[in-house]
Amino acid sequence: MHDLTIAYTIAMPEPWTHEYHVRIDIEGITGDTLDLAMPVWTPGSYLVREFGRHVSRFTALAPDGTPLHWERVDKATWRVHTGGQTAVSVRYRVYAFEWTVRTSHLTSEHGYFNGTSVFMYVVGQTQTPVSLRIHPYEGWRVSIALPQDEEGRYHARSYDELADSPAEIGTHRLFRFEVQGRPHEIALFGHGNEEPDRLVADIQRIVETVAAFFKNDIPYERYLFIIHLGDGLRGGLEHRNATTIAVDRWAFQDEARYTDVLRLVAHEFFHTWHVKRIRPHNFDPFDYSREVYTPLLWVMEGFTAYYDALFVRRAGLTSPEAYLDYLGTRIANYLNIPGRHEMSVAESSLLAWIKLYRRDENTDNSTVSYYLKGSLLALLLDIDLRVQSQGRRSLDDVEWALWERYGRRDRGFTPDEFRAVLEEVGGRSYEAFFARYVEGTDELPLAEALRALGLHLHLEVDAGTPRAWLGVELREEANTVRIASVRRDSPAAHHDINANDLLLAWNGFYVRDTAFVRERLRESQPGDVVRLHLVRDGRLIERQVVLGETPPNRATLRPAEDATPEQQALLHAWLEGLS
Ligand SMILES: [Zn+2]
């Protein structure tokens, strides 16, 4: 099929109905049928979401307004019988009432859409240029990263670019700043305890830091941050020229929580290069009709999770001590995931679709996050490169090499090509590293690696945590306590305590809340036997459990007394971003 002319229009005449009205005018059709499809997933979020389920009132019209016959071919595809027409106008509505960065949200307050959740693509034409007209609700303004012509139409080089351009429509606040002569815009929806001036200044600082990391080789003309403030929100989704970030509206005054917001900003902004351009070979153009698999998410998301905190540090927005505390927390979290012995990070990457994005009570027992383990692998590689080269090389050089060779040329890489770049920069083989830590599940040599930076890694049980250990996560429900999950190889697992059991009594006493359990554990010793009454599947059961010893849940990183000047220099260069 030759290129068609494809013009999208999206309107929201009654936003309180949560329905976007979408119209697609297609010209230059030659066949008897025309297939249109809704994506089943959105790039950057590895879950089949079936966006087609929110589509209604589909119609297809000839230029004179005559309805054309159409049929639903599968869960995502609509087939229009053109009846010889060369131009067809398709209209449908999309129910948009899921407020996440990956979906769409239309209410009397605002409109937000992530392209994949509202726009059908013409099958076989995802690389054809398209135009978009947005009719905002009365009095609302539009923020979108696409270029606009004099007639108000937006233009995208392809469906991919259209789908990759989220929009915020409403009465949101707008802020602007420039970095290296490029305009950056922040569309801020919602209110809480934010300080806009500080937030804008800090985001600018992060943009400057990440851009400088890539030697100010900025791949976009213009960049848009859409930031949503809402109750309990947290999430971000990367795009080539934009990002949508959702955070809790009250996250801006507490220092630790605000730093987390800044890490999220740095994370999504780093993706502008790393993931959106420095990317696996099968990312972009995307196949929107099914899962796209890669064993490289530990590089794509893990490296990003490593650098996000480091950028906030290097931007001077947090102290070296606070950064090391954060890293300690990450290490402690990792060491408390039994699944790290069960599944490699390469497999966890590949299976994101059914594992990380579909968490259940067994997730931590059976898998390890490619974000978390990937970030610690990035740490190990970074330290190794710095130590082996006596400070002349680092993971930053690997990123730059990936950018020069692949990202800037908009070429993806295979897992082997990624490893080749790493080995070229490192000047040595990483075969054993990959076999043990990427494809394998060996314990990571974190203490040893950090020692090379003159840091001592200390593991302990947090002062607030009881020494006696049951090995369960608990959930409070209306005056009762339920077992949310049972940790592999814990006392609870060994004594037949199940997830979903209702924990009724501890040594014969009613368990009213989780604090009660914590208090009883605090009064117990490892080795004590407790009698638990539980309700399982409607029956009362009793279990005797021998309590264990709580494993370390806190990791601290402190400069070692005997660190050499060379180690101190490496530490300083790492924390400040010098190489
Ligand atoms: Zn990410």
Summarize the structure.
The chain has 579 residues and is an alpha+beta fold. The chain is 29% helix and 27% strand. The strands form 7 sheets. Strands 4-7-2-1-11-13 form a 6-stranded mixed beta sheet. Strands 22, 23, 24, 25, 26 and 27 form a 6-stranded antiparallel beta sheet that branches.
Structure notes:
The protein is of the alpha+beta class. It is 29% helix and 27% strand. It is built from 15 helices and 29 strands. The strands form 7 sheets. A 6-stranded mixed beta sheet has the order 4-7-2-1-11-13. Strands 22, 23, 24, 25, 26 and 27 form a 6-stranded antiparallel beta sheet that branches. A 5-stranded mixed beta sheet has the order 15-16-17-19-18, covered by helices on one side. The two termini are 52 Å apart. Bound molecules: zinc ion (ZN). Zinc ion is lined by residues 267, 271, 301, 304.
